[in-house]
Amino acid sequence: KLEALRMLCSSTVGQVAERTASVTEAPAQHKLFVFRGKLLDSDDTLLESGLVDGCVLHMVLNESPEVGKRVHVRDSAGRVRTVKVTEHYTVEDVKEEVACFDGAPPPEAQQLAFAGRLLDNAHTLGEYNIQKPSVLQLLPPARPRQLEQLVGVVSPSRWETNVPACSVVSLAFGRPGAGGWRPILSSLMMAGFELRAFASHEDLPGTLRYDHSNQQITFRPEVPLQPATHYRVTVNRNDGMWMGDSSGEQARLRGSLRWDFFTEGYLPLRITAVYPRPHSRVRPRACVIVSFCK
């Protein structure tokens, strides 16, 4: 059923819910609206939500509206984005929420800090004792570490899709760094290399080979890669690599290198919005909405 409403740009989404005559038995606070895959905040104005004349909103009902606190995320340019969260949200959940805003970086490019402390993805807001009203800082992407500055090419490349199952993983180092420093390839042991399926906790067994003439390290898995799988590579995860210069001096090579790729048959999608929200109660015949983007 399509219902036409005339509203001012300064009206809030909550006022739209109050004016909606459809489903009159449902209180306004139980009416939620989705626009272009995004669940709108009831306190935002129509202008802030990007709504213009002729827009079509999809209304969904929630018998138990989400109970959450507001957390504000301020970036280095001073822009503030507000998300609703609970103490059980992980830092990664917050990053996913922030990524839904126009112009916001993807979760993997975000660094969040609170009270001068960099937040880890796996921890919850409750573990960090983040109370309302809290302001998190969205920091610029971290500067490349030593290892990242020395690596020239990785294969498969970052976020590459349709990677054949028979592929090997390799990384080639470019020109020497400042002061003529080069990595000592053989210092990378299996304990410092990791190739695993993204949802798995087990490393894939294989063999490391060192090509000193081309400054390249290759990992050959013992078994072919699984099709339609998201893989993650981590190099120097224990800071065990060393580098040396022409004079023979050596120093620890700090920082790890990590990248992801996808084997044939995998279609990587990012979830930008879901309804019902986690842990909410809805009517037995309520619809489920999941919005994706490539």
TrEMBL record:
It holds the Pfam family ubiquitin. Residues 10-66, 69-139 form the Ubiquitin-like domain. This is Ubiquitin-like domain-containing protein. It comes from Hemiselmis andersenii (Cryptophyte alga). The keyword Amino-acid biosynthesis does not apply. CDD domains: Ubl_ubiquitin_like (cd17039). GO terms for biological process: ubiquitin-dependent protein catabolic process. Keywords: Cytoplasm. GO terms for cellular component: cytosol. The lineage of its organism: Eukaryota, Cryptophyceae, Cryptomonadales, Hemiselmidaceae, Hemiselmis. GO terms for molecular function: polyubiquitin modification-dependent protein binding. It is found in: Cytoplasm. SMART domains: UBQ.
